Description:
Layout: H1 3-13, H2 25-51, H3 57-116, H4 126-143, E1 147-154, H5 157-164, H6 166-183, E2 189-194, E3 197-203, H7 207-222, E4 230-237, H8 245-261, E5 267-268
Parallel strand pairs: 4-5
Antiparallel strand pairs: 1-3, 1-4, 2-3
Amino acid sequence: MTAMSARKRRRSDQGEPRSFKQLPHYVLYPIIGTCFGLGSPIGAFLLRFWLADPLLKMQWARNELDYNFLFYAYMGLGTVGSFLLFGYVLGLRSERQRVHNRVLSARVDELHLKSVTDALTGAYTHGYLHEILELELQRSLTNKDSLSILILDIDDFKRINDSHGHLFGDRVIKETAETVSASIRSEDILGRYGGDEFLLIMPAADRGIARQVASRICSAIAKNGYMATVSIGATTFSGEEARGVNDLIATADANLYRAKRQGKNQVCDAAGPEPPPAAEQS
Length: 282
């Protein structure tokens, strides 16, 4: 899941039907006020009915309505009108405050999203990815479930940048992120790990699922028409052995450089770490 898909999901939620409590306050409060206002004449009648002679209650009720109907109607209209007007005025003020709070909350969400997402690709940032990976690793340990991560690197990106310029390079990075987002599962979490590298966190994904998704990404990017391919290093945590975030990333990174040495545009998910020489990084 990327931040872009999260924004789309929030926008789609706005079309859901509203409940009674979600009515504008300048509508909701007058309705409540009307109910309170009606309680005044009804309450007065019931109180007097309760105090009447038990043997003559029904006769008293008929006489009371015959002789005092206008009194109860006047009381009802007066209290309902007062409460309705008061509820409307109060509702206007409350609704303005609610709208202000909603706008403020949306602004806070937007600022938080900007702080944890990459401006160019819309994917999550390096630091936020580490936080998510820590949480997913703990969840995997608790549930004894698999967790896979992929590290993707655009092949020969420096050559692409030098040949076509940085604007074209940025376009390749952005298109790569969009292609990856379209090729992964809805629960997967994509982030820009740095430069032309991306990190994909795959909750509840075993080695077979991780390799299948990684191969799909490689094929999709090779066909996107931007003269770019990616190499992918993968590793899977079973949920049982003692491994940390840095160990998972180091293993996936080592597998990434294996893929580079083996010809690029491919996936490697070998088990053991093998740090690459600095001269072979690209």
